[in-house]
Amino acid sequence: MPGKIIELIDKLIEVRSNGNPSLESTTRTKLLLKGIDARKYTSSSEDDPVIIEKIYQISEEMCVKL
Length: 66
Fold this sequence. Notes:
Helix content is 61%, strand content 0%. The chain is mainly α.
């Protein structure tokens, strides 16, 4: 199912930032520092199980339940 990665990224950013643009930017930066470039993925991007697992690990580190 294409688009799972961007769905998880968007959910992580939404929950973590809670509407705060500053926290949204910080979360995107943290993802980028951990090797996930949110701009690289779209709803038609193929899903990579390694990237999906990495997003779940990052969400655990940020105490965000996806």
